[in-house]
Design brief:
The complex is a heterodimer of chains A (1016) and B (189). In chain A, 23% of the residues lie in helices and 28% in strands. With 1016 residues, chain A is of the alpha+beta class. In chain A, strands 9, 10, 13, 14, 15, 16 and 30 form a 7-stranded mixed sheet that branches. Chain B is an alpha+beta fold. Chain B folds into 2 domains: 88 residues, Gyrase A, domain 2; 79 residues, Heterotetrameric sarcosine oxidase (Alpha-Beta Plaits, 2-Layer Sandwich). Helices cover 21% and strands 31% of the residues of chain B. Chain B has 4 helices and 11 strands; from the N terminus they run βββαβββαββαβββα. In chain B, the strands form 2 sheets. Chain B has a 6-stranded antiparallel sheet. In chain B, strands 4-5-6-3-7 form a 5-stranded antiparallel sheet, covered by helices on one side. In chain B, a hairpin with a 2-residue loop joins β5 and β6. Chain B is globular and about 55 Å long. Chain B starts with 11 loop residues before the first strand and ends in an 11-residue tail after the last helix. The chains are: A alpha+beta (1016), B alpha+beta (189). The interface between A and B is large, with 53 and 52 residues.
């Protein structure tokens, strides 16, 4: 059984007991425990079920590489699935649930099912079984796959995450990722040059695994050296140390993400839970250490089989032993340290099984001296299946697994050698080289990730570089720190050697399968990828079926595709593949390492963007007034505009109809502040606008306005609006609400890239001005009243708004009601209409003055839907309705706005191409349903015959459709093949409701065809 | 003429730092040729300040001049004077290709000050805010989370931020969130 030892546990505080629950069961741990160590202390060997076969699984590792111990953590609005027990610090009240089991962890129906369904679950099962027989998909495969898809449970969709998150931008010369002895030494070396250094350590404590492995540095015990070095670094102004912060990813241009977990160990303490560090470092040192590889033997997934290094961690760090009778299996000397640690802790080591015929070095001698039996050239044949280790059969390594000896044991410590953590080196293109001696891939310093200048920006330090012995690790780290600082522009320094203790180790021997010629029965029980349930036999099957590329094998077998990204399974899996392909391991290569190193929370990625700051809302100066007067909001880009103003008891439809009628019959006010307003100024401004607009703007007289169209260079209609000539070299261009920033950028692009020698400046003054459309038969009256000019004329000192003084399509500066204003006599509604611009800071006051003065004239504000209906009644097009990026002005009957006098404008050449001049292009017409109903938006008109797919041919579509309160019937515009030539014809629009709408092709101007109303 | 009102009417928040909407400021977008003597003289007349270096703000007795791009400055003057200064710039530069536009009402202005002000801004703007890297007189045209903005540090160690008026509420809520009392980073304070 696994249990807490009476002594040991350098990270726990036995005076602080902590209660927590696992699957509802109350358990106790100590401050300093991880959830993993606390579970082991409570003899909770079984921590979850595997993904495919629902096999019982226990802890294998002690850190981020743990594949099995994924739990659902927390409850309610703090619940999160797939949290690793090994990286979860224990806190009071922690509630964890194991995953992938039903009805219970102890008895799982899936485990039974997996036997029934096992034929579906071999390598490539995703691909093979979903194809044939076809009917099986719907009734058998899909329900089965759905049930087993995904790890853990998704949080309740009705609940919102209770926590907050944030980002933090940071810049430094040297970023050190990893706070083990190598990282600390590298930081020290870099800091000594004066470089600004940031050190990130994912765990809560510094020093990595050296205190567990033992040794001395500069004459000090590892732990003392770590404490001293951390204190030294903390005292330096140019060094920042962050624990509980993982280096998550290395990206182009030396951009690195750090993931700081602020309150995971103390939920609810306030403040952000996670902080995402967005770092720009001149140089990055990855001191990420190494990960131990499992050995591939049958039953290597039975709870109680653990990495030897991890078992040592549990003993030394947390005073926990996973078993009372432990068998150690290894192919290298390091695992002997575990045998010694177990022995020192008073745990019986029943056998050390060393796959090497010649055995180990100095450490194995010490183990033998302790009276522990060592067997060389031997292997584990099989660990007996079950919910925990009970019996281990051993055999000769160089055989098929016969002539077994059975040994009673309740835990197995295994070591297949160590692989450097190369992920961060590899994220941005760092290449690897195969190290024959250590049988691992290590970073190739000659092929580092490179930055914008082609120079390397990542350096590895310590065992992340390859060396595993303490002396070599420290020498490498010191050199790495100095190298990074120098590359970051600091002075070069000679690195002084660091004295450490050293142990002579015998060479490791690669063991990719145990025993070497294990038979198929054993290989089918030999796990490579624990989380995705990939076995040796699966990879071999993939090879037999022709999968030669490691990337293809990965996808075919799902090896390394789980949330641990194959941290334990990568090398073992590709060694098996190489063997099956009869190729060398370096020829097979590795799969791609992608960030993040370890999953990070979605919350951290989103940062502060949630609730009211999820997205910026742009508000006009009159926003609050609209909001308190029943505005039903419509998003327009980031703006919010009133769609309509609801009165009590009114439906949205009724409100819109009321606004339409009132504006036509009395007086409507529209907040038009969101319209884009761009000032274009300079000696070449006229010439510039002649290129941008399809019509002529240079000839516009000062004081006049002209409606203009803008096209892309491909000829498609892009934006429209009214242009006003302000003075000799200044024009003001109105754009659509959504087009302001886009057209501003469009203008700047042409000025900066093509016409850089034209003297034109552009400024976006959209937000400087509040603009109000004053619309309707009483429009002039209300403005004259504001000006104290009840009878017209210029009395009161305000602007003269008479038709003589301010005609249609003219503008004027002056005062209205005491407000400094610019008045445009323009109309998008067909009514008498002014658009009045005042300063944004006075926008609300001006609006209120209009509302007050307009009372006697029946004033009502109107929203965007009314605006749309008014313009549609007049047959005015709307960018985004009548246009969709495929429509040219000619399609919309806007030939009058295309200047024939100009040599060129953007889009002119494109509009003369054969497809653009094709008479079969759909063209704008009005549409009137025969029964007066409203055509469905976006409906297609069908004609005779069918297309190649047997579908009815389409001959047109609806672009805008409304109920017109003015005309009391549905009106629509649409693009129809040969439309303008087919006036009076009736065409069919099948609706999604199964009904076919019949509509007559008519002129798109439904109301006041002669334009008399706007010209008064 | 009615009283001009800023977007948030002087809202403030006290957390890790004090965040305050400071009301309307006079702002003029001035574009032209920085090498022109007339241009430099006009800037001096308008603000009392000289042309700033790249990414800097220069202070004069009547205002300040901030570097926006190789051909654009932002002049900061009294709100009440902005229209008049804009008009006189146009007169002074009549013979030169230039643009002077009053944008005072298009903007919202904030200050952030206090021991953690640098950290508050570093949470939302991708700028190196280390004390040696961002000093009084430094100016950045950048983004604050999802909106455009510009900021500078004055001699009294107070950060000044300007953004578009329409997103004033977003900016205020954003800065207040970043200044949550329990969200101290602890690298600059």
């Amino acid at each position: 059984m696994s249990t807490r030892l009476a002594k040991q546990g350098r990270l726990i505080d036995r005076s602080k007991q902590i209660e927590f629950t696992f699957n509802g069961k109350k358990l106790k741990g100590f401050a300093g425990d991880t959830l993993a160590s606390a579970l082991l202390a409570n003899d909770q060997m079984l921590v979850g079920r595997s993904f495919k076969y629902h096999r019982p699984r226990g802890l294998v590792a002690s850190g981020a590489e743990e594949p099995n111990a994924l739990v659902g953590l927390g409850v309610g609005d703090r619940f999160e699935p797939n949290q690793r027990a090994t990286t979860t610090e224990l806190f009071a009240g922690l509630a964890a649930q194991s995953q992938n089991h039903w009805p219970s962890l102890e008895y799982d129906i899936g485990e039974v099912n997996s036997k029934l369904f096992s034929r579906f679950l071999t390598a490539g099962f995703y691909y093979k079984m979903f194809i044939h027989p076809r009917p099986f998909w719907k009734h058998i495969y899909e329900p089965f796959i759905r049930q087993s898809a995904g790890l853990g449970k998704a949080p309740d969709t009705e609940l919102k995450d209770a926590d907050t998150y944030e980002h933090f931008y940071f810049f430094c010369d040297v970023l050190v990722i990893g706070g083990g002895v190598a990282g600390l030494q590298a930081a020290k070396s870099a800091a000594e040059t004066g470089a600004k250094v940031l050190v990130l350590e994912e765990k809560s404590c510094w020093g990595g695994r050296t205190p567990v492995d033992g040794g001395t540095i500069e004459g000090l015990d590892a732990e003392e050296w770590i404490a001293r070095t951390v204190a030294e670094l903390e005292a330096l102004d140019n060094v920042t140390l962050r624990s509980r912060t993982m280096g998550a990813g290395v990206y182009d241009h030396s951009y690195i993400l750090g993931y700081e977990r602020l309150t995971d160990h103390a939920p609810g303490q306030g403040g952000p839970r996670h902080r995402l560090w967005r770092i720009r470092a001149q140089q990055t040192v990855t001191a990420t250490g190494a990960i131990e590889r499992p050995l591939s033997f049958a039953g290597n997934d039975v709870p109680g089989v653990m990495l030897a290094g991890a078992m040592r961690d549990y003993l030394v760090n947390w005073g926990v032993t996973p078993g009372q009778k432990v068998l150690v299996a290894t192919n290298n000397d390091d695992a002997y340290r575990t045998a010694i640690a177990l022995h020192e802790a008073g745990v019986e080591v029943v056998r050390v099984v060393d796959a090497r015929e010649s055995g180990g070095g100095e450490l194995s001698d010490r183990v033998r001296d302790l009276g522990i039996r060592i067997e060389c050239g031997r292997a584990i044949a099989k660990v007996k299946d079950g919910k925990r280790v009970t019996k281990v059969a051993i055999c000769a390594q160089n055989g098929e697994g016969g002539a077994r000896e059975e040994i009673e044991a309740d835990a197995v410590a295994m070591s297949g050698g160590w692989s450097p953590v190369v992920h961060l080196w590899s994220h941005c293109g760092g290449k690897l080289t195969w190290d024959e001696t250590q049988a691992h891939f290590r970073p190739d310093p000659d092929r580092a990730p490179t930055g914008h200048d082609g120079a390397p920006f990542v350096v590895t330090a310590g065992s992340a570089s390859g060396p595993l012995g303490l002396a070599a690790v420290m020498a490498d780290a010191a050199a790495a720190g100095a190298k990074a600082a120098e590359a970051a522009g600091r002075p070069a320094r000679t690195v002084t050697p660091i004295a450490t203790s050293e142990v002579t180790e015998a060479p490791m021997e690669p063991v990719w399968l145990m025993p070497a010629k294990a038979d198929i029965e054993l290989r089918m029980k030999t796990w490579l990828d624990y989380q995705n349930d990939v076995k040796v036999s699966d990879v071999q099957l993939a090879a037999r079926e022709g999968y030669e590329s490691v990337e293809h094998t990965k996808r075919y077998t799902t090896l390394g595709m789980a949330t641990d990204q194959g941290k334990l399974s990568n090398i073992n899996g590709l060694a098996i593949l190489a063997d099956a392909l009869d190729a060398e391991i370096p020829q097979v290569g590795t799969t791609t390492f992608r960030p993040p190193y370890h999953p990070i929370s979605m919350g951290a990625i989103g940062g502060e963007a949630r609730g009211e700051i999820f997205q910026p809302l742009r508000k006009t100066p009159m926003y609050d007034w609209h909001d308190s007067h029943g505005a039903h909001w419509e998003p327009v880009g980031h703006w919010r505009r009133p769609y309509a103003y609801l009165r009590s008891g009114e439906s949205l439809h009724e409100a819109v109809n009321r606004e339409v009628k009132n504006t036509r019959e009395a007086l409507g006010l529209l907040d038009a502040s969101t319209l884009g307003k761009l000032i274009v100024k300079g000696p070449d401004a006229g010439r510039f606008l002649d290129m941008l607009y399809t019509n002529m703007m240079s000839t516009l007289k000062i004081g006049k306005c002209r409606y203009g169209l803008m096209c892309s260079e491909n000829g498609f209609l892009s934006d429209d609006g009214v242009v006003a000539r302000i003075d000799e070299d200044t024009w003001l261009c109105h754009t659509t609400t959504g087009g302001a920033d886009r057209i501003h950028a469009h203008m700047e692009e042409w000025l900066q890239t093509e016409w850089w020698d034209w003297k034109v400046y552009v400024a976006n003054v959209t937000e400087q001005l509040a603009q109000v459309a004053v619309v309707g038969p009483n429009a002039r009256r209300v403005l004259e009243k504001l000006n104290g000019q009840a009878g017209g004329g210029q009395a009161g000192g305000g602007m003269d708004l008479s038709p003589e003084a301010l005609g249609f399509m003219e503008w004027q500066d002056g005062e209205i009601g005491g407000f400094k204003a610019r008045a445009y006599r323009i109309s998008f509604s067909g009514e008498l209409s002014y658009e009045i611009a005042v300063s944004a800071s006075e926008g609300q006051a001006f609006w209120s003055a209009l509302i007050e003065a307009g009372r006697e004239f029946g004033v009502m504000p109107y929203g965007t839907e009314c605006l749309h209906i008014l313009r549609a009644e007049k047959g005015f097009i709307m960018i985004g309705d009548e246009t969709d990026g495929t429509v040219i002005p000619q399609d919309l009957g806007l030939h009058w706005a295309l200047s024939k006098k100009k040599d060129d404008y953007l889009g002119k050449r494109a509009q003369s191409r054969s497809h653009m001049t094709d008479p079969d292009r759909w063209q704008l017409v009005g549409l009137e349903t025969l029964d007066g109903s409203v055509l469905p938006d976006g409906a297609y008109a069908v004609g005779n015959g069918v297309n190649a797919n047997g579908q009815k041919n389409t001959i047109g579509r609806v672009t805008s459709t409304y109920y017109s309160a003015t005309l009391d019937r549905g009106i629509a515009m649409g693009l129809v093949k040969h439309g303008p030539k087919r006036m009076g014809e009736v065409i069919d629009f099948p609706g999604l409701d199964g009904k076919t709408y019949q509509a007559r092709i008519v002129d798109p101007v439904f109301y006041d065809k002669d334009g008399e109303k706007q010209n008064v | 003429m009615s009283e001009a009102v800023s977007a948030l009417n002087g809202a403030s928040f006290a957390g890790l730092a004090r965040v305050e909407e400071t009301g309307l400021g006079g702002m003029i977008t001035l574009r032209g040729d920085f090498a022109s003597a007339a241009f430099r003289a006009a800037v001096k007349t308008a603000t009392g300040g000289d042309l700033p270096d790249t990414r800097r703000i220069a202070f004069g007795d009547r205002g300040a001049v901030a570097w926006m791009s190789p051909d654009e400055l932002l002049l900061l003057v009294d709100y009440a004077e902005a229209a008049a200064v804009t008009a006189s710039l146009a007169r002074d530069l009549a013979g030169e290709h230039h643009m002077a536009v009053n944008v005072s009402d298009a903007r919202a202005c904030f200050t952030v000050n206090g021991a953690s002000a640098r950290e508050v801004i570093a949470k939302v703007a991708p700028v190196d805010l280390a004390p040696g890297q961002f000093a009084p007189g430094d100016f950045r045209r950048t983004r604050f989370a999802q909106v455009a903005g510009a900021f500078w540090l004055d001699e009294a160690d107070v950060f000044h931020i300007v953004c578009f008026r329409s997103v004033a509420a977003y900016m205020f809520n954003l800065l207040s969130t970043a200044a949550h009392p329990q969200a101290r980073v602890g690298v600059y304070s």
